[in-house]
Structure formats: C-alpha cells, structure tokens
Give the backbone structure.
Amino acid sequence: MAPCKLHLVFLALLFFSGGALAAAGTTANGTATAAATPATASRVRSLASSASQGVVFSLDRYGARGDGRHDDTPALSRAWKAACASPRPAVVLVPGGKRYLLKLVKLSGPCKSSVTVTVKGTLVASPNTADWSDRDRRHWIVFRAVDKLTVNGGGAVDGNGETWWKRSCKINKAMPCKEAPTALSFHYCTSLRVQDLKIVNSQQIHMSVEDCASVQLTGLSITASGTSPNTDGIHITRSKDVQVTNCKIKTGDDCMSIENGTHNLHVSQVVCGPGHGISIGSLGDDNSRAEVSGITIDSVQLYGTTNGARIKTYQGGSGYAKDITFQNMIMDNVKNPIIIDQDYCDKAKPCKAQGSAVEVSNVVFKNIRGTTVTKDAIKLNCSKNVPCRGKYLPERKMEKIWDGSSTAVHVQKLGHVHQSC
C-alpha cells in the first residue's frame, strides 16, 4: 500500500556545549609540587583518582608497552584477570599519554567485586585485519557477564576503522560482504556504567549493549566519517532499563539503533549528525518476532542526518513496537524527520509482499521542529494487514514563514489519529 505523505517542513535552532576541569598536583604530605611537569601532574591525578575507586591494576605493571606497535592484548588480559579476582573493588588502569595496541580481547566475569576500567590513554585496534578470523570478525573489545562494571576515564577507544571500511562491499562492490568488529561490546552485564569516553573510527558498530540490564551511558563522544559503512554509534538489543544521556554521535550509520528486546529505554540530551538518525529497528527481519516497548527519545538534536525519528520493520515479522515517545527534538537539514516504515527492505533484491508484520502502536511525536531538505517531513508507510494503530500524531499548523524556498511548520500540539494509513 502506498505510504501516507504529509508535506511539511520544520524550522528551528538550538545549541549544545560542554566544559573542562583543571587540577593541581600535591605530594603525599599535602604540599604543592612546585616543579611538577604537566605530564607528571596528569599521572598523579590519574593514579589518585583510580586509587580512590579501589585497588589499581595498571596495564604497565603487566607488561604493556603502550607504544602503539607492540601487542598489549596479553597485558590487558592479565590485568583484567587479576582485577576480576580481587575481593575488593578493583580498577584496571590504562595510563594516559600512551597508545595500547589490541587484537580481539574478551574480558569475562563474574568477578568477586566491582571492577572499573579507567581509560586515560588510548586503546587502538590492530590495523591488520588478518588478526581476526572469520569466526571472530564481529568483535574487538568484549565485556561479558560482569556485574557492577564501570568503564570511564576520558581516554579514547580507536577502532582503526579505515582499513576495514575500504574492504566493505558497500564501499568497494568487488569485495565480498563480511562483518567487521564492533569496537566495544557488552554482553549479559548488569549495573553497567560507561562514562566519559571517546570512541572513534570503529571498524563497524561503535558500541553494542546486548542482553544487559540497568545500564547508564553518559558523556560519550562517538565519531567516524559520515561515509563510513555500518558504523552505528550505539546499538541496543535485548536489554532493559537503559539510560543514554549527554552524548555526541557523528557516524556513517544510525546514531542509535534500538533493536528487538529493548524495554524501558530513556534517551536525552544527545546530539546526532552526520548519520542516519535515531532508529527503532529494523525489526522482524527473516520472519522473526520482535518486542520493543517503553522507549522515550527526549531533548535530542539532529544535524544533517538521513532520518530523524524513525521506526522500521520488515514484512513477515511479528510482535510489537509500542509505547514510544519522540519529543522535544530539534532537526536541521534532516531528510526524513519523522518516518514509520512497516515495509522496510534493505536486501539486494526486492522483499516479497507478506501478510504478517510487527505491530506498531501508541507512538507519540511531540514538540519536534527544524528544517528538512525534502518536501515530505512526515512519512507513514503502514502495513495493510497489521496497520499502525493508536498513533498520536502532531497537529499541523501551517505558517507562511519562508526560509529560502521552504514553508516553515512548527509542530505544536497533538491530535489523535484513529485511522491507519
């Protein structure tokens, strides 16, 4: 069935900013360090901060070189093993000012106490794609089955993704289509905190949260080229009670992808662009069942993205995507500001028509404004057999305010729409 199209354009502007902190070093007896260099002072602060969180296990003590050339994967594994076995809260410290080269590494629990991984320096992926076998191509740094895990420190995780991007079939049609590693993966973790990190140039997805509960992602900077393939910023699936706040995401794919099994997710104060916007889905691929509920996207800004607020499902799937709110959003030069597509297809060949679909219901779009580069600000392509229902769509208030050749429309109120497309 043809999609319902509402010809709208939005107009708005908003700002987002951050800050910095400075500190001074002291000696053990509390006197000022008069001749301390900035590098020395930084190391003192790093160690003092880490020590306050628990017993410190520094990579350098376990044989890491931190020169960006030698393999430091064994050192990280040894430091993690010692920290995980500690009966007291432990800190795995990645010292500042160095680059620690890593191949695939899996850091597993359960641990005897809480563990904090404090990244002050940079964890950098091996540039040699041969370091990954076909069996392990989807992962780089993996945390699995850890309770009360914190990853923080203000440092960087560098996926060295350019080498992988050039081999992608989306960039080079002559190459076979294969998976590439996710930079940071969290599997079966509870009470997880990931804070104040820079994640750059991931091989594929930057961060994936899978089968986790009670998660806080805060103060993350995620950056890759706008042309990098499949480099989603934050991917969430089969997880519940997740909060994402105060993050800035610039990638070549979805800033956030919210997949099957996600329940009770709250996203706020996120800046996105370039990228494909914030997507719920795709859901129901390969005739699978999907269940997503309790999603709130609030106070988000999108700049130059392909999509804004998006829900996408395949024909042939089943299940539901319900109780979803997109509100207080600013969009600037967004191609598809609001889009629901129950006939989504990204296959090489057209997807065949099927009767079943993931049911989309109780979706709210509230206080969304901005500019679009296309004539269709709202696109609703709903299934004929399992139509979108119980939607609450914005009332349109047309105003003859011109910005170049565009008519400006501010989404202000909510009108209850009973019929489906």
User: Anything to note?
Assistant: The chain has three helices and 32 strands. The first helix runs from residue 38 to 53. Residues 1-51, 395-421 have pLDDT under 50 and may be disordered. The two ends are 8 Å apart (CA to CA).
